[in-house]
Amino acid sequence: MIEIHGLSFRYADADRDALQNIELTVPDGDFLGIIGPSGAGKTTLVHSICGLVPHRRGGDFYGSVTVDGMDTVETELTDLARVVGTVLQDVDSQMVAASVDDELRFGLENFGVPKDEIEPRMAEALGAAGISDLRGRVIGSLSGGQKQRVAIAAILALRPKILVLDEPTGELDPAVSEQIFRILREMNERYGMTVVVVEQKIMLLSSYAKRLAVLNGGRLEIAGPVREVLKESGRLEEIGVNCPRVVTLSRHIRDLTGGKIAATVEEAEALVREVLR
Question: Could you give the 3-state DSSP secondary structure of residue 7?
Answer without folding.
Answer: strand
